[in-house]
């Protein structure tokens, strides 16, 4: 397939939620491997600083404002990547929020936010990138879910529901695609990032940190998993990668 690129070098990789945590680590790691990375998030001052650091280290990076809850912004994000680098090889849909709570607390606005960012943000990414991938006859969706895409417990009910849904979307999409488009799901366990900051109940936040966030992966461990999937030959689709700290049970 002449339009396929192999490996990581030169690939144009668009990453949502690249202003901190896993998205930032993925941008830095993939750029260091020779990818041309396009970073999107709402905190543009953070993006600007990360892009400047990647460029100073000799990498190729661009950043732009992105709110994944707005479909037209995903379209603009993909168009921005194309305008900057002429194509898009990979979309890493990583943006996510995790305001954990008990269902009976009825934090409906937080449920909406998780559905909008974690699920609809991924769907809008597919809607924006799929026509481009089909026209190129090459493309790769990488969806960052969570071990919560296959596990649920108290306080993670809605968060896990959004991640279960993205896992279903990823598997269905993979089956529907032809041999030119790959779909990979990366499910991290507890990883160093700013994710718990969104938990609005202080007692739950403390409990979540004490229960789930004792053993943490460095965000670069997830970046390496993404890179592993990206660097495979075009006829090899790494379907799912689950990465937990060795000490994490569930
Ligand atoms: P962070 O909070 O550090 O990063 C989340 C990223 O998502 C930020 O860059 C944030 O950028 C972005 N984001 C949030 N809302 C939006 C939005 N509306 N539009 C665009 N970007 C948005 O957490 P992580 O790095 O941990 O999270 C990355 C992914 O990893 C998430 O999908 C999360 O569910 C998943 N994950 C993380 C785990 C962990 O333990 N850290 C475990 C399992 C999964 P900004 O605010 O600037 O827009």
Short description:
This protein has 250 residues and is α/β, with parallel strands linked by helices.
Please tell me about this protein's structure.
With 250 residues, the protein is α/β, with parallel strands linked by helices. The protein has a single domain, classed as 3-Layer(aba) Sandwich (Rossmann fold), CATH 3.40.50. Strands 3-2-1-4-5-6-7 form a 7-stranded parallel sheet, sandwiched between helices. The longest helix has 29 residues. It is globular and about 50 Å long. The model has no long low-confidence stretch (mean pLDDT 96). Bound molecules: NADPH dihydro-nicotinamide-adenine-dinucleotide phosphate (NDP). NADPH dihydro-nicotinamide-adenine-dinucleotide phosphate (NDP) binds next to helix 1. NADPH dihydro-nicotinamide-adenine-dinucleotide phosphate binds next to helix 1.
SSE inventory with pairings:
Layout: E1 12-16, H1 21-32, E2 36-41, H2 44-56, E3 60-65, H3 71-85, E4 90-93, H4 108-136, E5 139-144, H5 157-176, E6 181-188, H6 202-212, H7 219-231, E7 240-243
Parallel strand pairs: 1-2, 1-4, 2-3, 4-5, 5-6, 6-7
Helix pairs in contact: 1-7, 3-4, 4-5
The chain binds NADPH dihydro-nicotinamide-adenine-dinucleotide phosphate.
The site of NADPH dihydro-nicotinamide-adenine-dinucleotide phosphate has 29 residues, from helix 1.
